[in-house]
Amino acid sequence: DVILEVDQMSATDTQRPPLAVVILAAGLGTRMKSDVPKVLHEVCGRPMLSYVVDAALSVSPERVVVVTGPDQEAIADILPVGCERAVQQERRGTGDAVRAGLEPLERFRGDVMVLYGDVPLVDAGFVAALHRRHLEAEAAATLTTSELADPEHYGRIVRDDDGGVVRIVEYRDATPQERAVHEINVGLYVFRADALRPALGRLTSDNDQGELYLTDAVHLLLADGHTVASFRSDDEEMCRGVNSRVELAAVNAAMRRRLVERLMLAGVTVEDPATTYVDYGVEVGRDTVLRAGTHLLGRTTVGAACEVGPHSFLRDAFVGDRARVVSSHLHECVVGSGCSVGPFAHIRRNTVLAEGARAGTFVEIKNSRIGERSRVPHLSYVGDAVVGQDTNIAAGNITANYDGYEKHATTIGDRVRTGSDTVIVAPVNLGDDCVTAAGSVITRDVPPGALAVTREEQKNVEGYAARRVAERRTAPPS
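Now predict its structure.
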């Protein structure tokens, strides 16, 4: 409903003032105990700041400014085209951070939305609804509030008898009566730029933290008689910020649940959502079944009518339609339609399994192409190889591709049958329709249709077991 209303507003209300978004991302995140800037810690495979930027861009603002510290070039590196960076030279609080964000907006006239880079569960619907509330109220400022069952140490919203916002009181300054209030200040705002600028200029650091608080700008606007509206969000989860790795885990769980639910609503069966891990941007086709303990990470795409899992791990992998991946690891590889992988296979980088191919139990394949309908059923390693169509690589085969200095290629043709425990020493070519005998070590090319045998002649020593027993009986004690 919110999205529908926003669409109607954008179609009919062409007179609304322009909008800029300032995202505060300069925090050090000392409680994270990390050398990585807090907003670059990942939520479901991408920096948490990226979600906030997406939400900001969803309302088509004229400008988006991300405020960082002077030592946070890594944050600037992930910003998409169209986002600007402002630097807060000294971390002197939220009011000072917003002041820094307004520096590139010196000539901007309109509304300024303030978001936080460590509140990644905000989405397009929330941002649009907050902006709409601000426009409807014709307010100088609109702040977001939420009712929490356990408001903990958040700042409380104090209202008058008519329900209007009177002030925001920090927990440490609140009276017992004020602490009993469950409505908290989330910290997400929209301001009229012409009201915000002078208020920021009047902020002082006369507090126990010695910082400039954005909440004090709200108090100044109230004192000057400006209208300050509120936007109450019923989504307690979406307002959750990240200040520690414990909170990061909670936000990851919430985002993962959203992503998994989105897949299920699109026609994917998820056997156990609680143990299914899906990164942002993963795509899965309809009628696919994801078994318990499955991880789909990075840029992974899984086609329709597949079965993945249980306990499969895919990162940056492409899996075609009707494929089956059981208890296996896939990394930067392509698994074609109708393929079967696992259990306990490891398909590594730059590997392509063509349509209908099979990589079975305890098989490792790296930097290779396995042709249509070809099989590597079990207990084999294939590296730096090209395998043709309808070929069978028997149990215990190894392509010996490394001579201690360089990797070498193996080419195996169509309809080849290798015997169990064959070692193929690269570089070497096996022609179409050839066969290798079990236990062979292939060091030379095998012509098409030939049988390659490299065994030594078998020798049987009669009576060997009896002689060993006799020798043991007559041997002196050790």
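DSSP finds ten helices and 40 strands in the chain.
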